[in-house]
Design a protein that fits this description.
The chain is α+β, with helices and mostly antiparallel strands. Helices cover 20% and strands 19% of the residues. It has one domain (10-138, 155-406). It has helices at residues 6-10, 23-30, 75-93, 184-197, 242-248, 275-279, 283-290, 328-332, 376-386, 415-418; strands spanning 62-70, 127-132, 138-139, 142-143, 175-181, 202-213, 264-273, 343-344, 347-353, 359-369, 393-403. The protein is globular.
């Protein structure tokens, strides 16, 4: 007997409310442990290094993500902002104010240079990760900043997938900044001040806050849970898996864009979850949909969360596979996807309720990949058309950004793309 579509049954398919406003050296720069495995709120994640922080960095507890449109037509003005952003970002990640005079050190009759809400707070392992979207290169066929020929072949326009309800107003963007920290105020303060610096050059297109990481990016972090109550990202790529990172995450020269070598591609998807229908679903059905036990996180029929999933196991009555053909675990597994893997770095979100009183909540999915067209697109095509969990999900936001390699001493965000200023 086919399952009833819960989104139809409970009438909650709306899009929801508006959004809230070489590897060893790399590990030394990014592999900062969270409090649960030896770190603490006073820890500083180095801002400069071969890779941008905030990718393989041990996932922090909070996120503030912003996508921006570039409003200037002056290339030099944009590059100048990226230089100033870089210096400010480096200060912010150490726990300092955005500028020397800060919130209270300037002229009392002038607006403060820093908004001040992070005064007295520790660095909280703040990381700031920068990316550029396809529209920065061309818009309506126009080469906006003389860089159209430098658009990476891997920086594609993401397609629509089955069941998508994408809202253009909170999708895409010319630039993005991902702020992650163990204190939400630290993350918000950083993005707020960078936005302020960009006034007249950039404007916020959309933003999303997230809490409660839904992935582990280093060995030693416990697997977190999503809004459905299940452990999420058990088989995620970690910072210690240098071979996996080289194959699936870090862009290489042979990928067709030299300036992206050592960088990665950030996929962002806001996924609203049908919380109330899910909460009315039996535990047995929930576990069959996911393909894992809710308590341990182990695949059905197993006891170890990290044991290989046995897709050949059958139900005791022989009626079919123990891990269903339309279960999330089977369809998202690398063996089903031809070996494709991704580095997940998502967060839970709650943005209030909709007009019917249902929670506007779910997963803000972030993944870093080497080739979005060969990794994320086939994975999402399979999930959107076959995964029984899609009865409880609707994707409302979609974006892809190219995140360049890290910044060295004297370097700045975007320098590998734009070159040194004249």
């Amino acid at each position: 007997m086919p399952r009833m579509n819960r989104r139809t049954l409970f009438g909650i398919a709306g899009a929801g409310a508006a959004a809230a406003a070489g590897a060893g050296a790399v590990l030394a720069a990014e592999h900062v442990l969270p409090a649960s495995v030896g770190g603490g709120p006073d820890d500083v994640v180095p801002f400069r290094g071969a890779r941008q922080a905030g990718i393989t960095t041990a996932a922090q507890d909070h996120l503030y993500f912003v996508a921006l449109d570039v409003t200037t037509t002056d290339r030099a003005e944009l590059v100048d902002l990226l230089q100033r952003w870089t210096l400010a970002a480096e200060r912010l990640t150490t726990g300092a104010e955005v500028a020397v005079d800060g919130a209270i050190g300037g002229h009392p009759e002038a607006p403060p240079q820093d908004t001040g809400e992070a005064l007295g707070l520790p660095p909280a392992r703040l990381t700031l990760t920068f990316g550029v979207g396809p529209s920065l290169f061309t818009r309506d066929g126009v080469d906006r900043f003389g860089i159209a020929d430098r658009r990476p072949p891997k920086l594609i326009d993401l397609p629509l997938f089955a069941g998508d309800a994408i809202e253009p107003g909170r999708s895409n963007g010319d630039l993005c900044i991902q702020a992650c920290a163990d204190d939400p105020q630290v993350a918000v303060h950083a993005v707020r001040n960078l936005i302020r610096m960009g006034f007249g050059t950039t404007a916020v297109r959309w933003a999303q806050m997230g809490y409660g990481r839904t992935s582990s990016t280093v060995v030693g972090q416990a697997t977190p849970r999503n809004m459905f109550g299940f452990k999420d990202g058990t088989s995620n790529i970690t910072a210690e898996d240098t071979a996996g990172l080289a194959r699936h995450v870090w862009a290489a020269a042979e990928d067709g864009a030299d300036w992206m070598t050592g960088g990665s591609y950030l996929v962002a998807r806001r996924i609203r979850m049908a919380i109330e229908p899910w909460d009315r679903t039996s535990l047995l059905e929930q576990e069959e949909i996911v393909g894992r036990h809710k308590g341990s996180g182990a695949a059905l029929g197993a006891t170890d969360e990290f044991a290989e999933v046995d897709f050949s196991a059958t139900r005791p009555d022989g009626s079919g596979p123990l891990v269903g053909m339309d279960s999330h675990v089977r369809l998202a597994h690398s063996s089903t996807l031809g070996g494709v893997r991704i580095l997940r770095r998502g967060y839970n979100f709650i943005d209030g309720t909709d007009a019917e009183g249902h929670l506007d909540a779910g997963l803000f999915f972030i993944a870093f990949v080497r080739d979005p067209g060969a990794q994320f697109v086939p994975m999402q095509q399979a999930l959107s058309t076959k995964d029984i969990m899609m009865e409880y999900l609707v994707h409302t936001s979609s974006a892809l950004f190219a995140c360049p390699p890290g910044v060295g001493t004297g370097d700045h965000w975007g320098r590998t793309l734009f070159g040194n200023p004249a």
